[in-house]
Design a protein that fits this description.
Layout (H helix, E strand, L loop, with lengths): L2 E6 L4 E6 L4 E4 L2 E4 H22 L8 H21 L8 H20 L19 H23 L15 H36 L5 H32 L8
Antiparallel strand pairs: 1-2, 3-4
Family: Belongs to the ATPase A chain family.
Subcellular location: Cell membrane; Cellular thylakoid membrane; Membrane
Membrane topology: Multi-pass membrane protein
Length: 249
């Protein structure tokens, strides 16, 4: 059942609807149209910024090029710390793509008045506000660390399931199912909860309270992107090294 609330965005008065979607029928598939629309926007924004930052590369960077180089250095350090100095380089693009896509998606939900665009059903929101997006990102992460472990250790990778004792085989297998579940529901739950909290506060105290809460939402959205990318890199590092570890973040 849809939950309808009045929400005042900094630029617009709109409804917040949970549980309603714009569907596209493609053969036997039913696609969430609103998720594709906002995801394409995020991807387009990232491609545009990348193009503008690299179209005239200078030896002494400034402006957008300087910002992008700083972002690349940040992502490179993140991957190096979690995966290891010897193995991290091939995984920088994957970890960086995860971080940037989630970061821009989260912020787009907080900064862009998507609700100005009216749809036949449902409404536009951050791509990470939909469980399908977060599950897809989590499954990609699972495939990545399986590939990392198998490509680096061969069939020996599967020995981890019976280490340190074969008795732990069911638990070690279950861990591979809980990792994507944890990643997807953490991200989805935090982004959806943030939008619902802002909507409720706007409804109750529409003038002053929502603004600092929305600023806090921007901070937590950035933290969620960092946590997801850090955990993804940590899982890849564990698969390469061949031993388990405690979940960080």
């Amino acid at each position: 059942m849809a939950l309808n609330m009045l929400m005042i965005h900094p630029l617009v008065l709109a409804k917040l609807e949970v549980g309603q979607h714009l569907y596209w029928q493609l053969g036997g598939l039913k696609l969430h149209g609103q998720v594709f629309l906002t995801s394409w926007f995020v991807i387009g924004a990232l491609l545009l910024v990348s193009f503008l930052a690299t179209r005239n590369i200078q030896r002494v960077p400034s402006g957008l090029q300087n910002f992008m180089e700083y972002a690349l250095e940040f992502i490179r350090d993140l991957a190096k710390n979690q995966i290891g100095e010897k193995e991290y380089r091939p995984w920088v693009p994957f970890v960086g793509t995860l971080f940037l896509f989630i970061f821009v998606s989260n912020w787009s939900g907080a900064l862009i008045p998507w609700k100005l665009i009216h749809l036949p059903s449902g409404e536009l929101a951050a791509p990470t506000n939909d469980i399908n997006t977060t599950v897809a990102l989590a499954l990609l992460t699972s495939l990545a660390y399986f590939y990392a472990g198998f490509s680096n250790r061969g069939l020996g990778y599967f020995a981890k399931y019976i280490e340190p004792t074969p008795i732990l085989l069911p638990i070690n297998i279950l861990e591979d199912f809980t990792k994507p579940l944890s990643l997807s529901f953490r991200l989805f739950g935090n982004i959806l909860a943030d939008e619902l909290v802002v909507a409720v506060l706007v409804l109750l105290v529409p003038l002053f309270v929502p603004l600092p809460v929305m600023v806090l939402g921007l901070f937590t959205s950035a933290i969620q992107a960092l946590i997801f990318a850090t955990l993804a890199a940590a899982y890849i590092g564990e698969a390469i090294e061949g031993h388990g570890g405690e979940e960080h973040g």
